[in-house]
């Protein structure tokens, strides 16, 4: 198996493929990442993912170790090197670089990055059965728009959900529903979609963006506004969106069962159209 390692395509067992203990990503979580879908060897919605990766780097002041064109070429190269033609995921991570441990970072550090390709089968089980979510207070920071490596609150929330018999956490803050642990949240109300606006409280999901685009093409109205916790009581359908999972119906929020434990009609329509639009 080959990996993209700081601009080179290397065998994963190559000696060069190793992280320094002084890497700021390792010590501080000082870095950002992307998860991108590959369908039949082709990278999906790459432009939007690159926009977000460059945005994340800019927001935390990492000097990109590549140009956009270089990275695109290198990502294609790593897929080619692995002769990867199946469905999978691309994981890209950029950390600020190496230096003796100090909260303050040195200027002009050489950022460290890698990308790997892993096979990923369509999550048919989740599509058939949906997922259950557990409401949890959002204890994350106030820059959730940055796709940062610091995922400890998400990890803890997912664990809490699982321990309580749920699949995923659903975060709320100040009485407003924000997003799930690793996905965005949508609600269907009066035949329209409602989802949190893109601000510092959520990650601006690429799947979210695609779903909004496709809903508009289908003539389904979309409202990007805050969802009050009380509104969950009256919701007809709910679903989550994320790169690996695409669109997954939510069948239960805390004790409340949703939509008879299956895809609601609007969710189903969107799901089908989403599939159609995968080249
Ligand atoms: N997570 N919100 C959060 C907090 C996320 O971590 C993710 C994605 C999303 C959905 O974004 P997108 O549609 O661009 O995948 C929303 C990735 C998949 C992860 O951490 O593995």
UniProtKB/TrEMBL annotation:
GO molecular function: D-alanine-2-oxoglutarate aminotransferase activity; pyridoxal phosphate binding
GO cellular-component term (any): cytosol
Domain of life per record: Bacteria
Role noted for this protein: Acts on the D-isomers of alanine, leucine, aspartate, glutamate, aminobutyrate, norvaline and asparagine. The enzyme transfers an amino group from a substrate D-amino acid to the pyridoxal phosphate cofactor to form pyridoxamine and an alpha-keto acid in the first half-reaction.
Keyword entries, A-Z: Aminotransferase, Pyridoxal phosphate, Transferase
UniProt cross-references to InterPro entries, sorted A to Z: Aminotrans_IV, Aminotrans_IV_CS, Aminotransferase-like, BCAT-like_C, BCAT-like_N, Class-IV_PLP-Dep_Aminotrnsfr, D_amino_transT
Enzyme class, spelled out: transferase
CDD domains: D-AAT_like
The family this protein is said to belong to: Belongs to the class-IV pyridoxal-phosphate-dependent aminotransferase family.
Cofactor: pyridoxal 5'-phosphate
Protein name: D-alanine aminotransferase
